[in-house]
Amino acid sequence: MDIILGIRVADGTIIATSKAATRGISILKDTDDKTRVLNKHNLVAYTGESGDTVQFAEYVQANIQLYSMRENDIELSPKATASFVRNQLATSIRSRKPYQVNVLIGGYDTKSNTPSLNWIDYLGTQVELPYGAHGYAAFYANSLLDKHYKKNMDVEQGLALLKMCLKELETRMPIDFKGVYVKVVDKDGIRSID
Amino acid sequence: MSRRYDSRTTIFSPEGRLYQVEYAQEAISMAGTAIGILSTEGVVLACEKKVTSKLLDNDGSAEKLYVINDNMICAVAGMTADASILVNNARVNAQSYLKTYNEEIPCEILIKRVCDIKQGYTQHGGLRPFGVSFLYAGYDDRYQFQLFTSNPSGNYSGWKATSIGANNSAAQTLLKKDYKDDLSLKEACELAIKVLSKTMDSSNLNSEKLEFATLSLSKINPGQVIHKIWKDSDIDSLIKESGVLDDKNTDDD
C-alpha cells in the first residue's frame, strides 16, 4: 500500500512517496525513501513487489549514469529517460520473470525549460501527465487532483494541493503510511522539502 | 624487412606502425574525392564519381552518398562494398537508439559506434580493416549542424570543411583559403564545386562525374531536417551558376 504521487507545476515537478516500508501486516521501517536520483534533472519514484523495486530502480539509475559518463557528461532528457525505462519494463514483461514495478519519473528538460511527469506501469504503459499516482493512492487522490489542479500553478500551490491529497489519504487509508518524503525537480535540480 | 609485419593487421612493426591500416588509408587516398562544407544554414557533401561509362545502367541513385537516418547523411571514399556494411550497421544503430530513447541519435554517438567497429578490425587478427573513410553530415539539437570524418583506423574528427579521397590535401588547402564562417548553404555549394573543379583530373565538369547532397532545416517546420540528394539537372545548373567552367576557359586563354 505504498503511496507515490506526482504533480507537474509551471516550473517544476513535485514527487511525494510514503515513508513506510511494509511486509504483510507489519511496518518494518518508517524512513523508507522510495525514490532514486537518475541524473541532475530526473528522479524516479517506484512502487511494486519489494525487492524488484529497488533492484529495478538502481539498474535504471546505473544505466542513465553510464550514459552520461560515456557521452561527456551529456544528460539524458526526461523524455529519453522515460522512454528508456518504458523500454526496459516492456522487455521485462516479455521475459520469464518480469519486474513488478510501477514508476513515476519527475523530470526537468533543461533544453526546452519544461518540467514533466511520466507515469509508467509494469506492463510498459507510458503516459506524460500533469499529475498522477500509482496504487491505492490513485483511488483517493485522482478525484481531488482532477478538481483542484490548475494549469500554471507554481510550486507553492502545487504543494498546497499535495497537502490536500495527503490529508484525504490519511483519513481514508486503512493503515498508517508514516507520512511522505516530498521532492521537487526544477531547473536547479532535485531538492527535498520538509 | 617490413614484409614480416605486413600480413597481419594486429602486429606492430618495429617502428610502431600498423602497415595494414596504413595501406587501407593509402587505398582511400586514391579513391574519388569527397568534400564536405559546413555552413550557417546546413551542410553540403560533394563527391567525385570515378568510374563512369556510357554502358553503365544507372537508376539515378547515388553511389557514394547514403542516408543514415532522418538527421544524417554520409559520403564514402574507398571500397563501396565495405562501406555498405558499415552504413547498414549505422542505420540499424540509429533505429535502435530511436527505439529505446524515442529521440534521434546524437551524431557523435552514432559515429563513435561505427568507429568502434572499424577499430576492432585493427586489433583482432586475421581480417583486413574496412577500406573506407566517411564524411558524415548531421544535425542534432545539441550542436546543430556538424561535419565529421572517420578513417580505417577508427579515428574520427569534427570539421568546418574537409575532404577525403584523392587529392584531399590539395582540396583542403583550397578550402582553408576560401572557407568563411558565415557561408550560406548556396555559397557552400558553390565553394564545393569550385574546389572539386580544381582537384579533379577531368577537364570538363558535369553531373555525370559528380554527386551532391545537402542537409538543411525546413523553413515551414522548425526542427525538421531536410536531406536532399541532388538530381543531375540540379547539379548541372549549379555548375553553370557557379561559373567554374567560365573561369576554366579564361584560364586556358
Automatic annotation (TrEMBL), chain A:
GO cellular component, one term: nucleus
Domain of life of the source: Eukaryota
PROSITE patterns the UniProt entry points to: PROTEASOME_BETA_1 (PS00854), PROTEASOME_BETA_2 (PS51476)
GO process annotations (BP): proteasomal ubiquitin-independent protein catabolic process; proteasome-mediated ubiquitin-dependent protein catabolic process
Main location: cytoplasm
Listed Pfam families: Proteasome
Keyword list, A-Z: Cytoplasm, Nucleus, Proteasome
Classification via InterPro entries: Ntn_hydrolases_N (IPR029055), Proteasome_beta2 (IPR035206), Proteasome_bsu_CS (IPR016050), Proteasome_sua/b (IPR001353), Proteasome_suB-type (IPR023333)
SUPFAM superfamilies: N-terminal nucleophile aminohydrolases (Ntn hydrolases) (SSF56235)
Family: Belongs to the peptidase T1B family.
Biological role stated in the UniProt entry: Component of the proteasome, a multicatalytic proteinase complex which is characterized by its ability to cleave peptides with Arg, Phe, Tyr, Leu, and Glu adjacent to the leaving group at neutral or slightly basic pH. The proteasome has an ATP-dependent proteolytic activity.
Subunit structure: The 26S proteasome consists of a 20S proteasome core and two 19S regulatory subunits. The 20S proteasome core is composed of 28 subunits that are arranged in four stacked rings, resulting in a barrel-shaped structure. The two end rings are each formed by seven alpha subunits, and the two central rings are each formed by seven beta subunits. The catalytic chamber with the active sites is on the inside of the barrel. Component of the proteasome complex.
Descriptive protein name: Proteasome subunit beta
UniProtKB/TrEMBL annotation, chain B:
InterPro entries in the cross-refs: Ntn_hydrolases_N, Proteasome_alpha, Proteasome_alpha-type, Proteasome_asu_N, Proteasome_sua/b
Annotated keywords: Cytoplasm, Nucleus, Proteasome
Proteasome alpha-type subunits domain: residues covered: 5-27
One Gene Ontology term, aspect cellular component: nucleus
Keyword field contains ATP-binding: no
Primary location recorded for the protein, binned into one broad class: cytoplasm
Domain of life: Eukaryota
Compartments in which it is found: Cytoplasm; Nucleus
Signal sequence, start to end: none
GO process terms (BP): proteasomal ubiquitin-independent protein catabolic process; proteasome core complex assembly; proteasome-mediated ubiquitin-dependent protein catabolic process
Assembly and interaction partners: The 26S proteasome consists of a 20S proteasome core and two 19S regulatory subunits. The 20S proteasome core is composed of 28 subunits that are arranged in four stacked rings, resulting in a barrel-shaped structure. The two end rings are each formed by seven alpha subunits, and the two central rings are each formed by seven beta subunits. The catalytic chamber with the active sites is on the inside of the barrel.
Entry similarity comment: Belongs to the peptidase T1A family.
Function: The proteasome degrades poly-ubiquitinated proteins in the cytoplasm and in the nucleus. It is essential for the regulated turnover of proteins and for the removal of misfolded proteins. The proteasome is a multicatalytic proteinase complex that is characterized by its ability to cleave peptides with Arg, Phe, Tyr, Leu, and Glu adjacent to the leaving group at neutral or slightly basic pH. It has an ATP-dependent proteolytic activity.
Name of the protein this chain belongs to: Proteasome subunit alpha type
Organism: Scheffersomyces stipitis (strain ATCC 58785 / CBS 6054 / NBRC 10063 / NRRL Y-11545) (Yeast)
